[in-house]
Write a structure and sequence with these properties.
By secondary structure, this protein is α+β, with helices and mostly antiparallel strands. The protein is about 25% helix and about 20% strand. The strands form 2 sheets. Strands 3-5-4 form a 3-stranded antiparallel beta sheet, with no helix packed on it. It has a two-stranded parallel sheet with strand order 1-2.
């Protein structure tokens, strides 16, 4: 979904400043896709991981460089949380009541303490809440 929009979003008529900046960032950044069904096709800066997710993410984290940012996929979050591979959360609370959905925190064997780092409320009513894990 993102690959179909962001690489060329800056070139679209009426592109906003955000679209231009995010499109540039998206084209330049390495991307990792966790998928059981898709595999690498050798294109661009996208790498698919289907197996040994914990090892692959740990290797990436140890290699230095930039942060790893994850978008979407509650099932991937569940796997990464179990392996304690997530260091921080940026949660965006949208003022919409859906009634159901996939829980963000599921299948956690023991409590993992978070500390509030920052918050921001946007004019739209969306709240951004930034948490970091307290690692002991």
């Amino acid at each position: 979904m993102m690959e179909g929009y962001w690489p060329t979003a800056a070139e679209q008529p009426g592109a906003t400043k955000h679209d231009i900046e995010h499109s540039r960032w998206y084209r330049d950044v390495d991307k990792i896709v966790l998928s059981r069904t898709k595999q690498n096709n050798g294109a661009g800066k996208v790498r698919f991981i289907a197996e040994n997710i914990s090892r692959e993410i740990n290797e990436r984290k140890q290699s230095g460089g930039k942060n790893i940012i994850m978008f979407g996929s509650p099932s991937a979050i569940h796997s990464l949380l179990r392996e304690r591979l997530i260091d921080e959360f940026w949660l965006f609370e949208n003022p919409i009541v859906l009634g159901n959905g996939i829980p963000l925190f599921k299948g956690i064997d023991e409590p993992q303490e978070l500390r509030l780092l920052t918050t921001k409320t946007f004019l739209s009513g969306v709240n951004a809440v930034h948490y970091g894990f307290v690692r002991k």
